[in-house]
Amino acid sequence: MEFVIPRDENLPDLRVNIGSLELANPVMTASGTFGYAREFEGLMNLHRLGAVIVKGISLYPRAGNPPPRIVETACGMLNAIGLQNVGVDRFITEKMPYLQGLNIPVIVNILGDSLAEYEEIAARLAGVPGVAGIEVNISCPNVKKGGVAFGTDPAMAAAVTASVKKKAEVPVMVKLSPNVSDITVIARAVEEAGADAISLINTLIGMAIHLPTRRPALANIIGGLSGPAIKPVALRMVYQVARVVSIPVVGIGGIESAEDALEFMLAGATAVQIGTANFVNPRASEDVLEGIGAYARAEKLDSIRSIIGGLRLDKHVPDMRNL
Amino acid sequence: MEFVIPRDENLPDLRVNIGSLELANPVMTASGTFGYAREFEGLMNLHRLGAVIVKGISLYPRAGNPPPRIVETACGMLNAIGLQNVGVDRFITEKMPYLQGLNIPVIVNILGDSLAEYEEIAARLAGVPGVAGIEVNISCPNVKKGGVAFGTDPAMAAAVTASVKKKAEVPVMVKLSPNVSDITVIARAVEEAGADAISLINTLIGMAIHLPTRRPALANIIGGLSGPAIKPVALRMVYQVARVVSIPVVGIGGIESAEDALEFMLAGATAVQIGTANFVNPRASEDVLEGIGAYARAEKLDSIRSIIGGLRLDKHVPDMRNL
Amino acid sequence: MTQYQENATVARIEQFTNNNFRLTLLCPQIAASATPGQFVMIRVGNGKDPLLRRPFSIHQTSSGGRIQIYFKVVGRGTEILAQVKKDQEISVLGPLGRGFQLNLSAPVIIVGGGLGIAPMLFLAKENYRLKRSCAADFVLLGAREKNELEHLLADFKCLGIRLLTATDDGSLGHHGLVTEIMQSVSLPVGSTVYACGPEPMMAGVNKICRSLGIPCQVSVESVMACGMGACLGCSRPARDGGYTHVCVNGPVYDAEELLWSL
Amino acid sequence: MTQYQENATVARIEQFTNNNFRLTLLCPQIAASATPGQFVMIRVGNGKDPLLRRPFSIHQTSSGGRIQIYFKVVGRGTEILAQVKKDQEISVLGPLGRGFQLNLSAPVIIVGGGLGIAPMLFLAKENYRLKRSCAADFVLLGAREKNELEHLLADFKCLGIRLLTATDDGSLGHHGLVTEIMQSVSLPVGSTVYACGPEPMMAGVNKICRSLGIPCQVSVESVMACGMGACLGCSRPARDGGYTHVCVNGPVYDAEELLWSL
Ligand SMILES: Cc1cc2nc3c(=O)[nH]c(=O)nc-3n(C[C@H](O)[C@H](O)[C@H](O)COP(=O)(O)OP(=O)(O)OC[C@H]3O[C@@H](n4cnc5c(N)ncnc54)[C@H](O)[C@@H]3O)c2cc1C
Ligand SMILES: Cc1cc2nc3c(=O)[nH]c(=O)nc-3n(C[C@H](O)[C@H](O)[C@H](O)COP(=O)(O)OP(=O)(O)OC[C@H]3O[C@@H](n4cnc5c(N)ncnc54)[C@H](O)[C@@H]3O)c2cc1C
Ligand SMILES: Cc1cc2nc3c(=O)[nH]c(=O)nc-3n(C[C@H](O)[C@H](O)[C@H](O)COP(=O)(O)O)c2cc1C
Ligand SMILES: Cc1cc2nc3c(=O)[nH]c(=O)nc-3n(C[C@H](O)[C@H](O)[C@H](O)COP(=O)(O)O)c2cc1C
Ligand code: FES
Ligand code: FES
Predict the structure, then answer these.
(1) Which residue of A has its CA nearest to B262?
(2) How far apart are the C-alpha atoms of A61 and A224, rounded to whole Å?
(3) Known catalytic residue: B75?
């Protein structure tokens, strides 16, 4: 795939690479939080996105879960959408033409019920114009079959990765579940299985209860926790994973601002995804991008790549506060 | 152990049982967030607590981690105290006399580096007047040796439980780590090993970065996330565990109000612990207790026990909102 | 359909009861493009908690670039919103959703209950502005008690459309439900009914309409995260067995598209 | 030592510069029991975010049951605090920590730098109130520029203790550091120095004191969650190789108990 990367000579160099895919900047939108991009058309400049990642696509259309599907929590939200989507075939015919027209990398988030399904989705996406990458969701907590099991077992995670790699003609990024005892084990397994990049984190499994009715707040009872509340967990996992793999890591989880994004990059992320923040501020991703640019300029960075993994661990400056 | 449970005949019956230990009410204070109780003496009525759980005690004194040890996050905080404590012997001589004088159940949270250490601490606590229970911390993320490993491996968790049970003369509650792929596996393992109760959750492992200095916000780099941010994860795990074990479950995680506490009880918790909220409102536990009493009165409950596990799953009332 | 995220200035705050408020917000782009039945998503604070925007119907717009929302304090978000100060800026996203389909050639009956009255003023005004004559039209408003209704009446009255009211406690108008007064007015074939209010009210209105063979448009609610079709959170079971998304397919529906339990 | 959690009423708000504020809070129990060098923990909002209280030195107390805090906006919490309105209620916990040990029988030198001036007014006032004569005493205040200092001077001046000032930019008093003026005043044997300010300033003051064999009490900071010894979060390396907890063992220390890097 080739994209014309607009590169204003006055702007700092924000390009980063996810495997063989070069992004104009490290800011992507997270799957399931940005629809199929068109929804945000009038509210931000879609052409500036480093990449757009679309809502999870399955082999066949899915109706999703009964309502209520979402509930707000402290500094976060739970969702149990249940991967409602149009299925890969209608995605290709109905959604891709518009997305392709945006002239930015489109990464398709995919989810299957079995290895064969993952492989089949990848096969159908092969050669589709405009598809620049595949993000393999092995971590959705809201689908009973498949989903979680793949993401918590290193052997299964590796097997899914290998299945998708067999058919994919674009870089494959595997999206990890945070609901595991040791994220580095899963990360290494998918790296060995051929993943070109790793993105993390998907949502933490959570639950909310509506006291007046004594009922779960979500019809699905449990759901995925996202938003600022989970940022510390996400940052920790990105830090841990980036230290043990040599493929690029993409940070996700509670990112709302350029500061948040830069923290993930210091922890080792090559790029970031903006999720729940899109709901609060539909131009969050553009704001993050501009903030990263301003930081790069202020800090006189030759390239934003220079801060990736740049966390300073030498000597801790005790917090002497600000008197 | 016997305690005089004050029981005002006009008050609703708030008594609950943790194994053979009867509590006057389901509100305890969480380890590490309430010091040795004396700190809160002037700020609330300590005699009203269902139980007090003291800061984690190890066999020998520990100095703890270098600063900074805490940092605020979205609706939460990270801590890496490093289990600073005076050691079990000084705990018994210096702290227990005051605690015993409170005439409420004192539950001692313990942590060891090895099975032998856990066993030895339990042995030293045996027969100490005023000690009403032991809470076994197999989940602290801030100590390199032991800690996490015990809490994430079912066999180790069971072994620790058995070691403590060998020497303990009071009910043993095992406190689980949420940083695992399947909390129910660990819960069942410690139940089988003889635990009298299970408390959960301890903190989620997280990290924060101070962008201006490009350094970790904590000297220990990673720390434990607590506060309202983690409540959805805690509630989910309590719900999951309560369905698979038959011993009492004690809910912990982001509880600030009576509503929060009641939600945990609906999910299956027999009692709750108030943690980080003590820092924000030193009389949080008393406020929660009063709120639970008011609820029991308003709902005309014969006993607060009647709401334990009372989540209604029959038919979901769609959220028709409040027009 | 173009949408805008505007930093709206709070131009006026009216408090009608303990819990009922009306805000006038200066957001010219949204005001200029809104149609009746559409809504806005408002960010009640600047912080991370509460995190999500809250949806509110557009109560009316003005040529001066203003919109109004009429709301009730029911939880944390509306509590914060009730405390805004004049001249404060708040972020408003809109206009969102599909509004009412006007019927300019036949009688219309506009039925609002409780907070469901909110979108009906905008609808009544547009109906009045665009229609040759409103002589056969009705506005029927219901509420729990007088003080939830009285402050809203002036704006409806000045349109000259026939107005009937009902209150649960009889403190204003008919003592009873708004569906009861609906049965007392004639609903000629060809007329259109518009309803917004509590679910049982809308179900009742729909039942009457169905028995008369009259189309009924309703504005419904749902929990929402994005308000613009991106999260798929606002699903509601549809008659066809699937789900519909209230923020983009609604909030206004032909009542027959939805499921009702009465 | 008894502590109180009070819902304090904001009695007065003074804004000295863009970022420097002084609040007067009505919290009679805390005001009645506070001693110089102690602090309070303030809950800046009612919500869950920001979650933790923020520590502030007690700037002065009044017999009318009031305390003052003097603070600077440096982050989210202080930003919210700067926006309180008169008569608003905020939760104040205190008085906390160990304050200064007064020396009523020998000359004292009170050194405050920047926001470190905050606790020094209370100290100077108590020193003045309890001591037979302050003729040999000094108050030395430093800041970046004039407008960070000038509004604070009146309260110090009315005590009649000799007052010297220094500013980084020379806009008021000595052009340079407060440690420089300290070297220009005589520090007789037996006198006590009290210092609060940036770490390098306190390290510098301590160095001078040590060379003269004069005791020096400093008030230091740390991140805090509880402010009352319950969380063990506010640790600071102590000279003896262990950690000390600023909220209960401090914030005031004999400078020799701590480690200084200069
Ligand atoms: C399209 C649209 C238009 C609207 N227009 C208006 C309007 O014009 N005026 C107006 O006042 N309101 C309107 N609403 C409703 C308004 O959005 C809500 O009242 C508001 O979001 C409440 O926010 P809150 O933070 O105050 O309450 P929250 O704290 O979010 O809770 C509100 C209420 O919902 C209940 N609740 C929460 N979760 C559940 C659940 N799972 N099941 C059952 N009940 C639950 C709570 O108990 C509480 O009573 C509209 C909603 C929509 C979708
Ligand atoms: C005992 C005591 C007394 C005090 N008295 C006063 C007083 O009288 N007046 C006054 O103005 N202040 C005083 N302070 C300081 C005051 O508590 C802080 O300024 C306040 O808590 C800041 O809150 P915030 O939310 O505005 O800032 P925050 O958002 O919490 O951050 C404040 C600053 O600290 C920096 N920071 C945060 N974490 C780290 C880290 N890990 N390493 C290095 N820097 C970090 C941030 O960059 C920022 O500049 C006192 C502190 C203590 C402990
Ligand atoms: C409403 C919603 C729907 C989501 N759908 C998907 C999905 O289809 N596939 C996927 O991999 N992740 C999905 N996610 C997870 C997000 O992509 C992201 O990993 C997570 O929300 C954490 O990031 P955030 O805190 O920035 O939102 C969804 C998240 C939300 C909130
Ligand atoms: C500062 C701090 C210290 C803690 N120390 C301990 C400890 O010593 N032993 C332990 O089992 N848990 C410890 N915890 C975990 C709490 O007991 C509790 O499980 C956790 O904070 C979640 O509850 P919360 O969200 O209500 O705080 C500590 C938590 C905090 C915030
Ligand atoms: S609210 Fe997000 S799709 Fe409707
Ligand atoms: S701030 Fe909690 S112990 Fe000092």
Answers:
(1) A211
(2) 21
(3) no
Measured distance CA(A156)–CA(D37) in Å, rounded: 60
Q: Is A315 on the interface with D (CB under 8 A)?
A: no
Q: Residue D204 carries which side chain, given as an amino acid letter? A: G
- DSSP H or E run through B188: helix B183-192
Per residue in A71-85, pLDDT (tens digit) is 999 999 999 999 899
The pLDDT tens digits for D43-55 are: 999 899 999 999 9
Cβ atoms within 10 Å of D15's Cβ, excluding its own? 11
What does the domain layout of chain C look like in residue ranges? 4-96, 108-257
Concatenate the DSSP letters of all residues of B40-74 into one string: GTTTS-GGG-SEEEEEEE-SS-B--PPSP-EEEET
Helices D150-157 and D118-130 sit at what angle, rounded to 10 degrees? 10
CB atoms near residue C259 (< 10 Å): 12
d(CA B250, CA B187): 12
Q: Mind telling me how many Å the CA of D4 is from chain B's nearest CA?
A: 6
Contact by Cβ (8 Å): A148, A142: no
| pLDDT digit string, tens, across residues A168-185 | 999 999 999 999 999 999
pTM above 0.90, yes or no: yes
Token pair of C84 as six digits? 């805004």
Extended beta strands in D31-65, E state: 39-42, 54-57, 60-62
Query: In this structure, what DSSP letter does residue A70 have?
Result: E
Residue D211 burial (C-beta neighbours within 10 Å; 0-12, 13-18, 19+): exposed
Instruction: Please list, in sequence order, all residues whose beta carbon lies within 8 angstroms of the beta carbon of residue D91, skipping any fewer than 6 positions away.
Output: B281, D5, D6, D7, D8, D42, D43, D53
Peptide bond into A228 cis (omega under 30): no
Closest-CA residue to C260 (of D174, A75, B318, A145): B318
Task: Give the residue among A58, A84, A199 at the shortest CA–CA distance from A142.
Answer: A84
| Contact by Cβ (8 Å): C216, C206 | yes
The B residues from 79 to 118 touching D (CB cutoff 8 Å) are 79, 81, 84
Q: Do C199 and B319 touch (CB under 8 A)?
A: no
List the strands of the sheet with A76-79, edge to edge. A70-73, A76-79, A222-226, A204-207
Which helix (H) or strand (E) segment is A72 a member of?
Answer: strand A70-73
Q: Tell how far the Cα of C77 is from the centroid of ligand 1, in angstroms.
A: 9
**Per DSSP, what are the bridge partners of residue B71?**
B78
Q: For D4-96, CATH number?
A: 2.40.30.10
Note the ipTM here: 0.96
CB–CB of B21/B1 below 8 Å?
yes
Are the C-beta atoms of residues D90 and D8 closer than 8 Å to each other?
Answer: yes
- Give the minimum alpha-carbon distance from B196 to chain A in angstroms, rounded to a whole number: 25
Fold entry, domain D108-257:
Rossmann fold (3.40.50)
Pairing of strands B27-29, B70-73: unpaired
Under 8 Å between Cβ of C69 and C57: yes
**D247 CB near a chain B CB, below 8 Å?**
no
Q: Is A164 helix (H, G, I), strand (E, B) or coil?
A: helix
Q: What is the pLDDT of residues A92-125, one digit of tens each?
A: 999 999 999 999 999 999 999 889 999 999 999 9
The superfamily (CATH) of domain B16-64+82-205+225-322 is Aldolase class I (3.20.20.70)
The distance from CA D189 to its chain's CA centroid, rounded to whole angstroms, is 25
Q: Whole-angstrom Cα distance, residue B59 to residue C236?
A: 57
Q: Which of C65, C40, C39, C43 is nearest to C53 (CA)?
A: C43
- Are the C-beta atoms of residues B274 and B33 closer than 8 Å to each other? yes
Q: Which residues of chain A are within 8 Å of residue B266 when distances are taken between CB atoms?
A: 209, 211, 214
End-to-end CA gap in chain A: 54
Question: CB atoms < 10 A from the CB of A71, how many?
Answer: 25
